[in-house]
Design goal:
Helix content is about 80%, strand content about 0%.
Amino acid sequence: MNKHGIRHSKLKKLIRGIGIVSIILSILFVCYLIGKLDIFNNPQALADLIKNHILLGSIVFFIIQIIQVVIPIIPGGVTTVVGFLTFGPILGFILNFTGIILGSCILFYLVRRFGRPFILLFIDEKKIQKYDKQLASRTYETIFILNMLSPMAPADVMIMITGLSRITFKRFLTIIVLCRPVSMITYSYFWIYGGTFIKQFLH
């Protein structure tokens, strides 16, 4: 393995390490919100916690949302849910939406600038090859739109793959601005209210 390959391998391991740490921290924070503060039964507890730190909290969360898209190994679904739980439906949506859109634009640009080597920092070549046929098809834009609408799709991976496509940045931006809110809200509110709805339905 040459020096470039060794450097690439070390960087890949470092990014994966950051991702593992971020996952652990995100899970611990969600457990804190649900367990210690009991936010489902006492929403005011969360409001009291953040009301004196709303500006700083908003800035930090906004930056986290950008990073979790640009480094697509951090659990974006978890941070999005946390945003709604912490900041409420309006500010939570604004911070989630703007952070995710800006992060998506940066990720798209990085792939356009550095190509496949950048993607290989996060996913294997075999996985990229699975998308090659889709990239060559005329229906790729439709596939991308459906993935951006789906709350269960690997959105960040699709954004990286789309960076290799012929879709223009303007078209890319239009699609994510219109579609990401649908998947973002659907995913978040399913996890926030899904359990309660299922219990009510069963009873």
